[in-house]
Amino acid sequence: MEMLRKLKFYDHHKVKEFIIIDPYNNDFIVYAKDEEEDELQQIELKDAKWKSSLMNITIAREEKDIKFYFPDGKPFRSPEEWNQMFGKESVANAILEKEKEQERLAKEKALEEVARLKEALEQLSS
Q: I need a surface site. Which of 20, 48, 109, 126 has the fewest CB within 10 A?
């Protein structure tokens, strides 16, 4: 029901392609319009795949999941692949490194301020 409401909304706002993806059932439905059509129409999928004329990407229903492909045919990386490449540990380490750098810069700035105030105090007492 929610997707039908969104379909009407996007159709009303002149969206040219609308894709409903159901990851639980490994399925997707494509709605598109060409220059002659004023409404989004459901597209019949050939070989369980579809190529977007706007984004030039391909969506394919495969054995275990739905895959997305770049125009050159290379697949998009899955969340699992991203986690392997930039795992949670890597992200956590990057955050810690950034925090350490911010602390170092703040300490450096504070020491510079102390030196400046010390110099000003010495000038006042002379």
A: 126
Question: Residue 113 — φ and ψ, nearest 5°?
Answer: -65, -40
Residue with tokens 């602390």: 103
- Closest residue by Cα to residue 70 from 62, 61, 60: 60
User: What is the pLDDT, as a whole number, of residue 88?
Assistant: 66
Helix (H) / strand (E) containing 80: helix 79-85
Strands 27-32 and 49-51: unpaired
**pTM (2 decimals)?**
0.61
What backbone phi and psi angles, to 5 degrees, belong to 60? -135, 135
CA distance 65 to 81: 14
Return the structure tokens found at 13.
């706002």
List the alpha helices (DSSP H) in the chain: 2-12, 79-85, 88-125
